[in-house]
Specification:
The structure is a single chain. The chain is mainly alpha-helical and about 130 residues long. It has one domain (about 5-25, about 45-125): Up-down Bundle (Four Helix Bundle (Hemerythrin (Met), subunit A)), CATH 1.20.120. Helix content is about 80%, strand content about 0%. It has helices at about 5-35, 45-75, 80-100, 110-125. Helix 2 packs parallel to helix 4 (about 110-125).
Length: about 130
């Protein structure tokens, strides 16, 4: 397995952990019945639940770009120390982004996001060279 694919696997694990945490917090707020419901009329949620749900949404929105970057690098055979480093920088940024969102680390959360975003596009750019 290439380092980029290993980073993609690690990203999937981070995604699963964030899903679990968001669901755990939601269940604490609304109970198992509320979590199993269509969630049309949820009561007000705790700040931590809302933040974890937004962090999960952000991760879901951005994982596609990272998957694209890994696939592009893999299919073009442009794997290098640079693309491997970028991939693992993305993983580290995503791993730190979740607690940054949960605990309201401003402006650090935005800076952490930017690091991961730039690393992703650096991988794509590297495939051209």
């Amino acid at each position: 397995m290439t380092p980029e694919l290993a980073a993609l696997a690690a990203t999937a694990l981070i995604h699963a952990v964030v899903m679990f945490l968001a669901q755990k917090h939601l269940t604490q707020d609304v109970g198992p019945e509320g979590n199993a419901s269509p969630r049309d009329n949820l009561p007000p949620l705790s700040t931590s639940t809302e933040r974890l749900r937004r962090a999960l949404n952000n991760h879901t929105e951005n994982i596609g770009l990272f998957i694209s970057a890994v696939v592009i690098v893999q299919l073009t055979g442009q794997n290098s120390w640079f693309t491997a480093t970028c991939a693992w920088v993305y993983v580290a940024a995503r791993a730190v982004y979740v607690p940054a969102y949960l605990y309201g680390w401003a402006p650090w959360r935005s800076l952490i996001f930017t690091v991961g975003f730039v690393a992703t596009f650096a991988m794509i750019a590297a495939a051209f060279f």
